[in-house]
Prior knowledge:
With 286 residues, this protein is of the alpha+beta class. 42% of the residues lie in helices and 12% in strands. Mean pLDDT is 78; it is low at 8-17 and 207-236.
Amino acid sequence: MTAQQSSALAASESAADPVDPAAPFGATDVARYLAEHPDFFEQHADLLAAISVPHPQGEQAISLVERQALLLRERIRALEARHGALIRNGEDNDRIVEQLVQWASTVCAQRDPACLPQVMVDEMCRVFQISHAAVRLWQIAPQFAQLACAQAVGDDVVRLATSMAAPFCGSNVGFEPALWLAAEDGAIQSLAMLPLRIAPPPHAPQSHAPQSIAPQSIAPQSIASQSDSKPQDSGLANPVNRARSTFGLLVLGSPDKDRFHITMGTAFLARIADLASAALSRLRAP
Length: 286
């Protein structure tokens, strides 16, 4: 610090509140004093030009005002980046919702229950740009027993679907449902599995809480949201209730190992599962 800076600092100290010279006074005390006296630099404006601090990206010294300006510019850049990300997220979510409505509208318009499962998976692939999809149902009505979706599944698959409190996303580590997808061996690197269940009673709370959606969304790179949430209790937390209500599994597969990864959120997938369950419940046995 130069002689001029030292004299300016000494003058400011003499004008400030009196301090016991016998008491220790450190950097923490200085910071606390400045926080408690926000008008300090208004009363001692000359210090703003006199005090020099290290430049964050170099060895030269800059004034306190310049350093503050640098900090403000960094904060502005961070806020602009965050604002841009929020705008992109909103645009992505708008596109996802539009695709979801398009898919749901086609499914709801299908009057023939026998054609419904195939229309559902075909539209899933077309609208959301998914390479492979399949659905299997059990507890199905006898008149639909010859449909492809009614093919027998192993007990492990039924237990897996029953145990799932939310859709699963992750790598294909030899899951039996991956074999349902018309793909060559090893072609399915990642998959999403959506349990199909009877909707809870109207008086029960919804099974999935509203949540914010992140950039990784349904199309074209992902069919899941980035922020995950735990389902609210709708009676399905009880394994016995889940076993009684689970009647199928919808499987989505991709040759891209990063399309469905375990860190994905499942907000949109959960809603797709709800819609698919409601539509396919027409095929269940009474």
